Amino acid sequence: MATITTPRLTLSPFEPSDWPFFRRLREAPEIMRYMAAIAPETETRRQFAARLTTPHTFVIRAHDDATPLGDIGLQISSRYREEADIGYTVIPAAQGRGIASEALRAVCEYAFIQLGVKAVNAYVLADNGGSVRVLEKAGFVRTQVLEQAYEINGVRYDDWVYRLESGAA
Q1: Reduced to 3 states, what is the DSSP secondary structure of residue 62?
Q2: Which of the 8 DSSP states describes residue 67?
Q3: DSSP 154
Q4: What's the CA gap between 136 and 29, in Å, rounded?
Q5: Cβ-proximal residues to 115 (8 Å cutoff; 6+ apart), any chain
């Protein structure tokens, strides 16, 4: 599996030793409020096990520190091999420092150049202003609004669809 480096970051495949980080991330209410309900540990372990074998999923770290700052993953469509969906999470202490933006740009470049992907899609809750800014700063364009399409803990949210096409950034 690939490792991606940027000027400040190393994006490396998940390792079994990343479990405590992944669990903390998926149990943090301030993170999960934009993703999903906090799942039972058995479900979180299942998700983590999938990360260990899924290609194009990475832990984000600074070059000079082994502490995980977040994760980012790319899922190539099984139906349309030239399209992929991307998702990312950054711990609160690392937010606002350009970490998500740098990782996002690097993974999109990897998708376009190494994997032959022509377009990357991202879904973000309308309420998640930080992630909206990250996507727009990276050149993603909002293509669709899915009204009240996503539910977390019994509350419905608008889901915004963003897209970046190869050569657009």
Answers
A1: strand
A2: S
A3: T
A4: 25
A5: 56, 74, 76, 84
d(CA 85, CA 121): 5
* CA distances (Å), origin 80, targets 76, 106, 119: 8, 22, 10
Query: Per this entry, what is the length of the chain?
Result: 169
Joined together, the tokens standing for residue 8 give 């400040």
| DSSP line for 123-141 | EEETT-HHHHHHHHHTT-E
pLDDT tens per residue across all 169 residues of the chain: 799 999 999 999 999 999 999 999 999 999 999 999 999 999 999 999 999 999 999 999 999 899 999 999 999 988 888 999 999 999 999 999 999 999 999 999 999 999 999 999 999 999 999 999 999 999 999 999 999 999 999 999 999 999 999 986 5
